[in-house]
Amino acid sequence: MFRNLLSKVIGDPNERELNRLRPLVEQINALEPEFEALSDEELRGKTAEFLGRLQAGESLDGLVVEAFAAVREASKRTTAMRHFDVQLMGGMVLHEGKVAEMRTGEGKTLVATLPLYLNSLEGQGCHLVTVNDYLAKRDTQWMGPIYRLLGLSVGVIQHESAFLFDPEYLADDERYQYLRPVGRRQAYQADVTYGTNHEFGFDYLRDNMVVDLSQQVQRGFHYAIVDEVDYILIDEARTPLIISGPAEEPDANYRRMADLVPRLRREVDYVMDEKDRVVTLTEDGIEKMERWLGVDNLYSPENFALTPYVDNALRAQTVFHRDRNYIVKDGQVIIVDEFTGRLMHGRRYSEGLHQAIEAKEGVEVQRENLTLATITLQNYFRMYEKLAGMTGTAATEGEELHKIYGLDVVVLPTNVEYRALEGELITQKERRDGVEVVTYQNPDNNELYYKRLDYPDLIYKSEEAKFRAVVREIEELHEQERPVLVGTVFIERSEMLSEMLRRKGIPHQVLNAKYHEKEAVIITQAGRPGAVTIATNMAGRGVDIKLGGDAEGLAREDLRRQGVDLTTVPREQWAEALAQSKKICEQAREKVLELGGLHVLGTERHEARRIDNQLRGRSGRQGDPGSSRFYVSLEDDLMLRFGGERVKGFMEWAGMEEDVPIEHDLITKTIGNAQTKVEGHNFDIRKHLLEYDDVVNKQREIIYQQRHQVLSEENLRPIISDMIHEELASLVTMHTTGYAEDWDLEALQASLRTIMPLSPTFTPARWEKLSPQEIEEQLLALAERLYEEKERQLGSGDMRQLERLVMLRSVDNLWIRHLTGLDDLREGIGLRAYGQQDPLQAFKKEAHEMYVDLLAAIQRAIVGDIYRVSLVREPQPRPMREARTNVEAQRAPQPARTAGARVGRNDPCPCGSGKKYKHCCMRKDLAAAPGASEEKAPRSRSRRRRKRR
Ligand code: ADP
Ligand code: MG
């Protein structure tokens, strides 16, 4: 009662949340006896019952209490874990589409089962998004039995495989136990699907590159819970997902065409429109090229890749002239600005034209790399009808989560804190050595729980002195056999420290977030007596550290050492080994508890408070004792970049000695301020990236939607017919304006030849007596007749397929070129003189113009191809795996550095100029921060700026 009174006075928003959710928890608890009494069969029957009620019009919200009661009961029977009350609350927060901040070790994996079960009842699939493949797999194997008992299917997506959870399936690799390999699509068909943000995102992009609907794997974006949500939606969100593909042997193809095309003759082999810079092969020209290239049909699907080279070579040879449109200097093709005559150094024609000109001029052909598909994580996750997240540290990024994703953060107390709030545990507070010590006692059995002790930072004058002290501290803890987790900000530091410890003969383990599975095995044992574990901040994230060690892992290790094959180990032998290691771990736990639990030692403060909190959160799990302390030096990046001078002055004044640390509020405050500043700065960068992507996103949505229509529509002929009519009508209009004597019927005929196969006897003379309307009608009739003829030749089935292929090819090719063009536009926009114009506005305007052009070009391409292209049996599906994702490209170890939120060289500059950071403020920033070094570009490809035609 007092608590309620108090909260009314204080009005803590999270307290309010607890009050709001408490009655539901009470209802769930009240149902427990009833659900306990159900047989497994009856419990499973609940799922059918809920489905029936949903169908009868009940709402999902109305089912929360019973559904959660069912999941809790299923969990008790399968995993032996009973959802704590505060975990039920977490489940409700997730169901409401919010972020639940729950401390590390509070059991978020289990919490997610509640809303995932509930929301999957709607039959559209739910996704649980994790940070790496190992965790996706682990969570599936761990939580799978709960869903199975309730009759749900669970899938997991891995980088190059997919599985369904199936307890009957015995894998021959013990790490894949109970995972039945299936196709990706099947894993997505499951009620619940686990996977990483990268796999989900890239599958989405790849699904929009398929040539047949049957190749699509996903089925919509119903509900997703993002685990470690701050990392995925904030840190990772700085790098968009990109699938790019290099043109294969670009060099050879460009050169080959550059050799062949000059042999073609104007008006015989090709016709050209100098003004619009359009060149088209005639039937004769096509035949010649086919002969020279040794292909049957230049326009058949397997030669799709060739035609752009032919087109570009033609244009390069015929309508682009040296010393007029471009010059050649020092082995480079440099564009001449049409209006000013100035040389546009660094700019390139897009869409392979520049390469074709390079080949024509015999200079080195620069490698072409195309963006095949791209999306930011922000825009990927915003597609979900409902999105939720969970993590130990979200509150500091609440604003960003709200503004970008519409996600509100609810901070939940730990289970121990909650029980204390409810009056189940008695809280005691005291100050010891300037640190607040909080313990919780259970009055029934005197059991004690602790709140982690966070010691104030120790500040050293130099980095060297700091690391000396760190090593000393580790040595001491190791001698006591107290486990210690040492956090570093990047891999090089871990390695340096490792070397220092090695010289001292202190055994230790180093984790780099490189091999998630292997590192998970190590980190589960980081709570063993005497363990010293060095880790960057992402290493082993999501893996539980148990004091005294993990019995299962230990048993496995033991058996493996004895040469026992873990996949075939007899049940009794396993049980025996497990019992034995359990005993060992229990004893070890007692010992570690006495020593004060796991100590976390941070060797440097990170840019974001959140990351520091994550590190601290590794200790003091579920009321275990534990402590943390950061070591800081005046030479650390953060200190050098922000307020270092002031602090240094202060230090000098205080007469600071090399090896004597100080603890001082001023410095702690300076660090806090610096972190807040960096956090805001990084938020700006991400917002900026998103503002640009939003423009592309709208276009992407429409194009993908149309693409989907192309794939799903039975018969595309009506659409294509309309397009042909429009194209013909506009051609006629274009060439018949003004008085009849001004009409250019010759040109009309030439243009028509680029669309339809006209007979050689076809001459414009026949139009002389006609009105434009009559010409148009005649052409439409002709077009219709030729179409009919083609359809008769091919057969309707093939014609339908051909229509689909032609449309897809046009949309894809031009969309991809468009994406690359947009990229270039974005890079270039800051460099242009726009006066007072906002670069983003300029980008929006031009991007829109390009989009309008794109739509017109797509139509023109479709109409231009449909009469010419023919079908070859069994067209090869596009080899998508050849395309690379930017994540694969850097699947190599990721330094913790990039996990934090620093500006990448190739990121847009945070100052808003629209230029890349490296071309803008990077130099200035580096000069201001001598300790800062450059980081790897987050985007894997580096391209030169190109000019849009
Ligand atoms: P988090 O993701 O929140 O850091 P995990 O899901 O990894 O936490 O769980 C941490 C540990 O807590 C696991 O060892 C798990 O078995 C344990 N745990 C979680 N919930 C419960 C529960 N209700 N009862 C008992 N143990 C639990
Ligand atoms: Mg977790």
Description:
By secondary structure, the chain is an alpha/beta fold. Helix 29 (772-794) crosses helix 30. The longest helix is centred in the last third of the chain and has 48 residues, at 665-712. Residues 1-10, 874-881, 892-902 and 925-949 have low confidence and may be disordered. The structure holds adenosine-5'-diphosphate and magnesium ion.
List the helices and strands and how they pair.
Elements (H helix, E strand, L loop, with lengths): L1 H9 L2 H24 L3 H16 L4 H19 L6 H11 L3 E3 L6 H13 L5 E5 L2 H17 L4 E4 L4 E4 L13 E3 L2 H6 L2 E5 H11 L15 E5 L1 H7 L5 E6 L3 H11 L9 E4 L4 E4 L1 H11 L13 H12 L7 E4 L2 E5 L6 E2 L8 H9 L7 E7 L1 H5 L4 E6 L6 H8 L3 E3 L3 H7 L4 E7 L2 E7 L6 E3 L2 E2 L3 E3 L2 H18 L3 E5 L2 H14 L4 E3 L4 H8 L8 E5 L14 H11 L9 H25 L2 E5 L6 H8 L9 E8 L3 H5 L2 H11 L10 H48 L4 H19 L9 H9 L18 H23 L1 H34 L9 H28 L17 E2 H4 L6 H4 L22 H7 L21
Helix pairs in contact: 2-4, 2-5, 3-4, 4-6, 4-7, 5-6, 6-7, 11-13, 11-14, 13-14, 21-22, 26-30, 26-31, 27-28, 27-29, 27-31, 29-30, 30-31
Quick rundown:
The chain is α/β, with parallel strands linked by helices and 949 residues long. The protein has 34 helices and 27 strands. The radius of gyration is 33 Å and the shape is globular.
Number of strands: 27
The number of helical elements comes to: 34
Strand content: 5-15%
Mean pLDDT: 84
Q: Any idea what the shape is?
A: globular
Strand order, largest beta sheet: 5-4-3-6-2-7-15-1-16
- Give me the Rg, rounded: 33 Å
**Low-confidence regions:** 1-10, 874-881, 892-902, 925-949
Distance between the termini: 73 Å
- Identify every distinct bound molecule in the structure, by name, code or SMILES: adenosine-5'-diphosphate, magnesium ion
Structural class: alpha/beta
Major β-sheet, in short?
Answer: 9 strands, mixed
Question: Which range best describes the helical content: under 10%, 10-25%, 25-40%, 40-55%, 55-70% or over 70%?
Answer: 40-55%
